[in-house]
Task: inverse folding
């Protein structure tokens, strides 16, 4: 949508897609969708759809990149050309480079890398469809893919993007809210560790807004991590034979 | 510049030997015979934002194809036609040996084979994609994403492209007085196809020809032949890929075998599309 | 179901979940604020004798003395490099393969004796955080594998393929008449009188891998092999 919506809330305070300010979009998750990858996950937050795949730990082809005392994490966030409203060239952009970095920094603290010195753990994220909050949905998908691959982790992570539209702090922004709102605040956290590992602000917010938004985000993130656990549990239990 | 691949999965000698002794008995490791392709399943309309999309599984090989139509300018030598662009990615998610980066020679070859197989027989009615002759036309972007590689991304990709094309709607548009074009993606009409095309790949292992090779079979093969057919059985494209060589008689035999398989592919695809049901856009 | 299985209670845990009463150390369990927590998806068995943790996902971590089956991926200078189904590639030196220490001689073209794609049964002689795992074939029964079939499974499934006190592997051997060696790195070497039997056993092993945490598996595998033998007339 290139046109700013006339308003973001209706008379009942509901957003463009009918949600209340503190409501998330429906979240769907599936693990083990790819056979070759050591771990994989397909996650959607409403229309935002992300595929994550993990290879490793393994010795990387470029030996000079290894660290003597722990595994290196390689994270690549990339958007498919058909993922956006207007076709996007597959050539990596500066935005994708920055997001790859903040995602790596969101995941690395929870991966127990010192178990595997001189190896690489590669996380590939492909955004298949973009409708706001792609980096936070990517963090959730990456967390599932890492667990599916059996990479030892201190805890699972999940993400959600908080925004501010028409002066109201809202949870899990979609694309129009992201493009035309006053702020976009992505958050990624590990609830079992009580740690926030990705935190950015693009826009303008008061300190109260930040606090309210963060509390909303952390509550939602706990729910998403619970859903990750359920998904992982049922991926194993599906094979149960009596 | 092209150089011999250095990052290729290793097929153990024991497995090669076991496979070859199976072939001598006329069977393959997945219990298929030499002429039978793997099972196909399709999901249509997987990407809402795309004008057409399909997720195809050919055995364990998975390909996602997204189609987007954008307004652009027609080529000067074809002022009355829309523009066809094919781009493929062998995504690093698909195999432990695919590296991130710009499309390598394999991805480029895949793109160009698909492109020729659609362009030469005029599979897509590009004339129906003209907006203002010589000035404005639809650009049909076909983006092929190989997501899981268990051999034969050629056939799988083409089936994905075909399914996605069949799922594509050309958006309605309005031209303002100032000549601006306003697109309405909520409305549209099905993309016009003149013909349907499939690719049929066979691998040559010694003098055995195997249709729709899986990864082990590709690794074992001396060479592969990729043939494009329309529904009438006309050959609309050919590509020998990989090392090795063929005798003239082998090629004639392969063309004949592959033509028969192309009919099977069209049937399997239609069945898979029926099972999928078409998704409302 | 044995007495033991009846008495134990199994709980599925996820990364970050607490594990109460766990005594053993494991790379799949970490300490957090004095608690023990799971680092991978796994099963916690609450038994009378104590609680243990069985990872359902994990790796093969080379350990000195382990017998492994490696796949030769490449060679350079005086070494072969092998995939041992682990995050780490292993190294086998030309000197060791030809038993130089024991008085052997390295021939002019050493790499024709062991090629890319060959499987080797070898022992880990050294591995630490600084070096790649080093292998030796200078011991009884070790060396290039020349016959049979090799199947690769996830290393965490190896205990299930062996079974309690070897019950699973002995069952397979008896019902198929084949010889089996299960290497700790998840590779299984199967030698039978003919290759159809080897295929059947290979399939049985894949079934064990997929259904490893279910009960009654040993019996089902026995029935599977018997049935397949009948169907295929072997």
Result:
């Amino acid at each position: 949508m290139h046109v700013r919506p006339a308003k973001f809330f209706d008379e009942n305070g509901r957003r463009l897609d009918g949600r209340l300010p503190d409501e998330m979009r429906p979240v769907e998750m599936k693990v083990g969708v790819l056979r070759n990858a050591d771990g994989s996950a397909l996650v959607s937050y409403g229309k935002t759809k992300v595929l994550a795949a993990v290879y490793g730990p393994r010795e990387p082809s470029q030996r000079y990149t290894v660290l003597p005392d722990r595994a290196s994490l390689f994270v690549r966030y990339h958007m498919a050309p058909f993922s956006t409203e207007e076709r996007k060239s597959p050539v990596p952009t500066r935005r994708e480079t920055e997001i790859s970095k903040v995602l790596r920094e969101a995941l690395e603290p929870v991966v127990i890398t010192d178990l595997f010195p001189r190896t690489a753990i590669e996380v590939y994220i492909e955004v298949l469809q973009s409708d706001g909050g792609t980096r936070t949905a990517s963090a959730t998908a990456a967390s599932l893919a890492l667990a599916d691959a059996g990479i030892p982790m201190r805890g699972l992570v999940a993400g959600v993007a908080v925004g501010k539209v028409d002066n109201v702090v809202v949870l899990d922004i979609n694309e129009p809210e992201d493009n035309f709102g006053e702020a976009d605040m992505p958050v990624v956290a590990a609830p079992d560790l009580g740690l926030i590992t990705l935190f950015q602000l693009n826009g303008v917010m008061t300190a109260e807004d930040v606090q309210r938004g963060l509390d909303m985000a952390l509550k939602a993130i706990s729910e998403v991590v619970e859903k990750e656990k359920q998904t992982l549990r049922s991926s194993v239990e599906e094979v149960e034979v009596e | 510049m092209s150089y011999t691949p250095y990052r290729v999965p290793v097929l153990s000698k024991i497995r090669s030997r076991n496979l070859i002794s199976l072939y001598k008995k006329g069977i393959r490791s997945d219990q298929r015979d030499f002429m039978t392709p793997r099972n196909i399943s399709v999901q249509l309309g997987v990407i809402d934002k795309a004008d057409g999309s399909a997720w195809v599984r050919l055995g364990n090989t998975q390909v996602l194809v997204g189609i987007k139509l954008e307004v652009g300018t027609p080529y000067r030598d074809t002022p009355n036609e829309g523009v066809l662009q094919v781009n493929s990615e062998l995504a690093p998610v698909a195999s432990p040996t695919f590296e991130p980066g710009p499309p390598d020679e394999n991805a480029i070859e895949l793109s160009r084979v698909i492109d020729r197989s659609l362009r030469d027989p005029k599979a897509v009615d590009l004339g129906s994609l003209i907006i203002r002759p010589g000035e404005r036309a639809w650009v049909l972007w076909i983006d092929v994403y190989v997501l899981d590689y268990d051999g034969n991304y050629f056939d799988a990709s083409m089936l994905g492209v075909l399914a996605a094309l069949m799922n594509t709607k050309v958006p309605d548009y309005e031209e303002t007085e100032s000549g601006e074009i306003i697109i309405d993606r909520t409305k549209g009409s099905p993309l016009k196809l003149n013909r349907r095309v499939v690719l049929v790949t066979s691998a040559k292992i010694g003098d055995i020809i195997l249709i729709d090779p899986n990864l082990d079979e590709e690794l074992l093969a001396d060479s592969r032949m990729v043939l494009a057919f329309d529904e009438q059985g006309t050959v609309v494209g050919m590509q020998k890929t990989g090392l090795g060589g063929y005798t003239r008689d082998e090629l004639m035999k392969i063309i004949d075998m592959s033509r028969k398989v192309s009919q099977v592919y069209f049937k399997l695809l239609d069945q898979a599309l029926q099972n999928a049901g078409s998704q409302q856009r | 179901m044995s007495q033991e299985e009846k008495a134990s209670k199994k709980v599925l845990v996820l990364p970050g979940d607490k594990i109460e009463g766990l005594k053993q150390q494991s790379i799949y369990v970490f300490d957090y604020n004095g608690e023990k927590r799971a680092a991978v998806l796994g099963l916690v068995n609450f038994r009378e004798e104590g609680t243990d943790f069985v990872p359902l996902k994990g790796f093969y971590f080379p350990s000195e003395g382990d017998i492994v089956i490696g796949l030769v991926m490449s060679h350079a200078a005086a070494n072969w490099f092998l995939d041992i189904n682990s995050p780490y590639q292993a190294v086998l030196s030309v000197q060791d393969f030809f038993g130089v220490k024991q008085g052997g001689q390295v021939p002019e073209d050493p790499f024709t004796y062991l090629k890319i794609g060959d499987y080797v049964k070898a022992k880990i002689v050294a591995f630490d955080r600084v070096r790649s795992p080093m292998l030796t074939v200078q011991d009884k029964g070790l060396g290039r594998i020349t016959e049979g079939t090799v199947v690769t499974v996830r290393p965490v499934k190896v205990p299930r393929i062996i079974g309690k006190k070897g019950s699973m592997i002995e069952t397979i051997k008896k019902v198929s008449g084949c010889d089996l060696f299960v290497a700790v790195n998840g590779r299984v070497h199967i030698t039978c009188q003919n290759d159809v039997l080897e295929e059947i056993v290979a399939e049985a092993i894949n079934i064990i891998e997929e259904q490893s945490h279910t009960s009654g598996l040993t019996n089902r595998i026995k029935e599977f092999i018997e049935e397949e033998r009948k169907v295929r007339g072997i």
